[in-house]
Design goal:
Blueprint (H helix, E strand, L loop, with lengths): L6 H19 L35 H37 L1 H15 L3 H11 L4 H28 L2 H8 L4 H37 L11 H8 L8 H28 L1
């Protein structure tokens, strides 16, 4: 075992792999149809047939949890990757080229940072019809600025190194410098930020789904499962606890891994 990261790091990695495996398996198999309503099976206790019981419409909670894992994780990865890509491109351009390019990009960054992110997300998803596209657009628009600023700072630090200055003086093109000197240093930071952004995205989407502006029924993500279970919180708390624990466990492991990687690489 690599003792540079410790047991907690590798335990978190193992938990993430379990979640990823569950989400992949759910593409091909679930114990029951996660969207099939069965009134005769409403709010059943856990049993050999329904390992986690059923919800208020008689749907298998385990199957819906597996479906929710696939939707929440895949959307979190996609939206966070798009956010990282946009922030990486603009951050590198801002830090490397400077001048009016830096001024223009930073002006846009300050503009977006002056708008409350969560309120802006609600506004975007409220104006547009709730859908995967509007949700992705809302997440990317409200999240890229922190990526861009951190990448810009790292690029400025690398660009000030004597060996990079020497290469620029010798006539190396911007593409060459960015590819061979900037990106190898910036990528570890970007990947570390990506890990933490995935967890933040999942939490944001779960909160939007909870208030009805995220993933729409009959599809299920963890936020919808929590929202649907709130009606029966006092009598059947497992309807809230099960997806809530999944959110906390997955996002907590991602944040822990991200923090350890940031401490190691930065």
């Amino acid at each position: 075992m690599n003792h540079k990261f410790g047991f907690g790091f590798w335990a978190s990695v193992g938990i993430l792999f379990i979640f990823l495996a569950i989400s992949i398996v759910s593409c091909f198999w679930t114990p029951h149809d996660p969207m099939k309503v069965a009134i005769s099976n409403v709010l059943m206790e856990p049993s050999s047939e329904y390992l986690l019981g059923t919800d208020s419409l008689g749907r298998d909670i385990l199957s819906r949890l597996m479906l929710g894992s696939r939707i929440s994780i895949s959307f979190g990865i996609l939206a966070a990757f798009l956010t990282m890509t946009l922030g990486l491109i603009l951050g590198v351009a801002s830090g490397y080229f400077g001048g009016w390019v830096d001024y223009g990009i930073q002006s846009v960054v300050y503009l977006f940072q002056g708008i409350p992110g969560y309120a802006f997300m609600i506004a975007i998803t409220g104006i547009l019809e709730p859908s995967m596209f509007s949700l992705t657009l809302a997440v990317v628009i409200t999240s890229w600025t922190s990526f861009a600023q951190m990448i810009r700072g790292e690029v400025l630090a690398v660009k000030s190194k004597p060996y990079v200055k020497s290469v620029i003086v010798l006539g190396a093109t911007p593409f060459y410098c960015i590819r061979h000197y900037i990106m190898p240093t910036v990528i570890p930071l970007a990947l570390t930020l990506l890990m933490m952004r995935i967890s933040t995205t999942i939490l944001l989407v779960a909160s939007l789904s909870f208030i009805g502006l995220g993933i729409q029924p009959p599809l299920a993500d963890w936020g919808i499962m929590v929202q649907e279970g709130m009606t029966y919180y006092r009598t059947f708390p497992r309807l809230v606890y099960i997806p809530g624990i999944a959110i906390i466990l997955f996002c907590g492991c991602l944040n822990y891994i991200g923090e350890r990687l940031r401490g190691y690489y930065l």
